[in-house]
Write a structure and sequence with these properties.
Blueprint lengths: L7 E2 L2 E2 L32 E5 L28 E6 L2 E7 L7 E2 L5 E5 L14 H10 L11 H5 L18 E5 L2 E5 L7 H4 L28 E7 L3 E6 L17 E5 L4 H10 L7 E3 L5 H8 L8 E3 L5 E6 L9 H10 L2 H8 L5 E3 L25 H10 L6 E6 L4 H12 L4 E6 L2 H9 L8 E7 L5 H9 L17 H11 L4 H18 L2 E7 L2 E3 L4 E2 L16 E2 L2
Parallel strand pairs: 1-19, 3-12, 3-13, 17-18, 17-19
Antiparallel strand pairs: 1-2, 4-5, 6-7, 7-9, 8-9, 10-11, 11-12, 14-21, 15-19, 15-20, 16-20, 22-23
Helix pairs in contact: 4-5, 6-8, 7-9, 11-12, 11-13, 12-13
Length: 558
Amino acid sequence: MTSASFTRRGILVATPLVLGTGMLAACSTDGSGGSSSDGGGESGGALTIFSTGEEMSFDPATSQNLAITTLGLTARRLTAWKTSAGAPTELIPDLATDTGTASEDGRTWTFTLQEGLQFEDGTPITAATVKYGLERSFAAELTGGLTYHKVLLEGGEDYAGPFSDKHLDSIETPDETTIVLHLNRPYGDFGWIASTPAFAPVPEESGEPETYATAPVASGPYRLESYSPGSQAVLVRNENWDAGTDQARAGGPDSLEFVLAQDASVVAQSIIADRSDSQNAFLSTFVPTAQLVQAQNDPNVGDRLVTSGPGALEYLALNTASEALKDVKVRQAIQYAVDKQAYLTAKGGEISGDYATTLITPGIAGREEYSLYSDDPAGDADEATALLQEAGVEDLTLRLVITDDQTGAAEAIQQGLDRAGITVTIQPLDENAYSSEVTAGDGTGYDLVLSSWQPDVPSPNANLTPLFDSSQIGNGNYNLARYDNPDVDAAILEASSTTDAEEAHAKWAAVDQQILEDSPVVPLIFSKNSFIHGSGVENFVIGEFPAYPNYLTVTLAP
C-alpha cells in the first residue's frame, strides 16, 4: 500500500511498483491532452523510461495496472481499451474476437479467442491458458491484484488457486478457443473486467508464484530480456506477437529500458533540457512542482509538457460513523463551508485540476453534470453557518488526518471550515498509522480525511462501489466515509446488475446524486496529471479516461 497522497485505483492503491514504473509521457499535443497526429512515427528505436520505483513485477496475478500501462506491453487480456483525445475510452477486443457475449440473465459471459495466437516461445495461447491465469490470481501466494473477478465468479469466495491441482468450475473451456465464465449475479460491465491484468494468459508449466514476476511468458509485443532490481528492466520485441491480431498496441520501439530508482527532479531537468540521453525518453511519474513551473515557462519545452484533462476525483471524506458528523445537516454544512478555490490553489492552480461537484470521473459514460451545493468554488460560509444552526451545533471541532505531503491542501480545508466556525485540527500520519486508523481500523479515531480515487476501468461501478458500498468499510477497503446506507447499497446492486448500457448509465447517474444528497464526501477537484518527455517521443495519447498516457501506442521519431 502507498500513502494516502497516492491516487487510489479500484479496490487497491496504484503503487509505484506498477504505475510508477511505467507512467509514460505524451508528446506533440494539440492542447486537448493527446497526440496531434494519428501517425508520423515509425517502428524502431530504443525507448528509455525513467522511473522512481526500485522494483518491477510482471505477474498479472498481483498487478493493478490499468489496461494501457506497463503490463500491457508484455501481457494481453481478453479485452483492451482504445483511448483517443476528446472521446470516451472504448472497450475493444484483445485476445478475444469481441468484447464478450452475455447470457440473457447477465450471469454467463462467453469469449472466443482469435485463431493462431502465440506466446513468446511459440506455444499457442488457448482458453486453458487464460483459465489458468485467472485461477492463479486466487492463490494465497499471489496477493495485491485486483479483486473484481474474485467476488463475481461462482465459487470464487472458497477457491484458493490452482497450485494444489484444484480448478474453478465456474471457468469453463469447452474447446481451445472458447472460455465461458459463470457469475454469481448479473453484471453488466464484465467486458471491462476482462481487460484487467488477471485475464492475461499464463502457461501452466511456467506460472510458479516464486518466479513468474521476473520470468513472465509474454503474449504482448515485448518480452522481458533482463531485470535487475534497483537498476533496470529491458523489454525487447516478442517475435511471435502478431500485430494483425492486436487493435490495442502499436509495438513501436524495438526495445524499452526502464531505468529504476531515479530522482524525479533530476530526470525532469534532463528532459526539459532535451539532452541527448533524454530525447527518446520520458519520466514515469508526474512532473514535480518546481520542474512543472520551469517547464511551463521554458519556450523550448512547448508541447513536450503534456497535461491531461480532468481525471481522478480528489475528495474530503466525512466519517459518517463519527458522533460529530452523524447529522446530515452538519455534513451538508461542510459542503458549503469548504473553499475549493483555496484547495486548488494549494494543489498548484488550474494546471492541477478542475472543480468537482459530482462523483463519477470525467470520460466515463453515465456521468451527468450537476451541482447540489454552492456553485461558487469558494463556498458559502453563510449557508454553512445557517445549516449548523438548524442542526443545533456550536463549537464543532473535527480531526482531519493526512499524510505528510498533504499539509498545504489540508490547511486550505482548515481555513475554509473556520469561516463557518468549524475548528479543524490536522493530524499527519505515516503510512502504517494511516492504514491502521483509516482503512483497516474501526473508524473511531478521525472525522475527516483527504483522499483521491482513480477507477480501474471506465465504469461508474468502479467509481462508486469501492467508495460508498457498505461492504467496502474497513478491512483495508476504501469506504473512508464509513457510509452505510441500505438504499444506496440496493441502488448500486441494481445498477451494476443491469446489462443494457443506456439503462445502466441512467441508474448510475441517479446513484451518484443519491449519494451526494446524503453528503458522505465533499468532491473537491478532478485532478490533472502533467507529464514530460523528450523530443523523440511521438504518437502518444491521453484520452478522456484515464488521465494517463497510453503506453501501448507510443512510437519514436524516425
